[in-house]
Design a protein that fits this description.
Blueprint lengths: L1 H6 L34 E2 L7 E2 L19 E4 L11 H8 L9 E4 L1 H4 L18 E4 L5 H22 L13 H5 L1 H24 L12 H4 L8 E2 L5 E4 L1
Antiparallel strand pairs: 1-2, 3-7, 4-5, 6-7
Helix pairs in contact: 2-6, 4-6
Length: 240
């Protein structure tokens, strides 16, 4: 997530008080990290080798980041969506500057690799139609500007409350910014709004409006303990 936020941002991601350093080869080293969730600009796979993290490359700044916000394969005859996970809200709220957003709607992939398919399960079904519909670029200031201003104020408040007024690097959160009531509320509202933008593209495809409850995490709790397979409502889900 940290690297995704930074790929959308301009950088730089190092401050004068935080210079680059050689890789630490010890097993407990912070260099042995997941490059997609760590703030470090390098990572190691074994404590000996060292590789640049994705956002370390200047040419990758302001990248396109494609997000499937449901976080799961979700196949429904009614072409409905699950609730969106909050990671997409972090990309919108924390990236600097505000990223451009283009909503997309993809249909037909379930006909190629439906989760209920039988042998030969590993073979894609040929001669199926797939459509990819792009919506208009979102007016991000109009839709998300107020949320970003609230987020920046919350972040500044957290920095001022820290020892020495420490400036938080892009993509790095304190526990309060992760789990605090205000922070959680902002991410929930941001996620609701971006889901609404995708629903507009769905509507362009001639599909009827879905039940508003489909966008609520509380609705999907009724799936029970099953993580994958056929759900109670007839949809098919696979964790990715």
């Amino acid at each position: 997530m940290v690297q995704s936020i930074r790929l959308l941002s301009k950088g730089p991601f190092l401050h004068a008080h935080h210079p680059a350093s050689a890789a630490d080869r010890s097993v407990s080293s912070s260099d042995i990290t997941d490059p997609f969730s760590s703030p470090h600009l390098t990572y190691s796979t074994d404590g000996v080798d060292t590789f640049p993290a994705p956002s370390a490359y200047l040419s990758r700044r302001h990248s396109w980041v494609h997000v499937f916000s449901e976080g799961k394969i979700h196949q429904s005859q009614e072409r409905t969506m699950r609730y969106f996970k909050w990671g997409v809200a972090r990309l919108i709220l924390e990236a600097e500057p505000m990223p451009d957003i283009v909503p997309m709607w993809i249909e037909g992939t379930d006909q190629i690799m439906h989760e209920s398919r039988k042998f030969p399960r590993f073979v894609p079904r040929a001669l199926k139609d797939v459509s990819v519909t792009f919506g208009e670029q979102v007016d991000t200031e109009k839709i998300f500007g107020d949320l970003r201003r609230q987020w920046k104020a919350l972040r500044k408040k957290e920095e001022e409350a820290s020892a020495g007024g420490r400036v938080l690097e892009i993509g790095i959160l304190t526990d309060s910014l992760k789990y605090g009531k205000e922070a959680v509320a902002l991410r929930k509202e941001c996620t609701r709004r971006i889901r609404g933008e995708v629903l507009k593209v769905r509507r362009q495809r001639g599909l009827p409006d879905e039940d508003p409850k489909a966008g609520l995490v509380e609705t999907w709790k009724h799936e029970g303990g099953a993580i994958e397979g056929k759900m109670k409502d007839g949809t098919w889900v696979k964790d990715v």
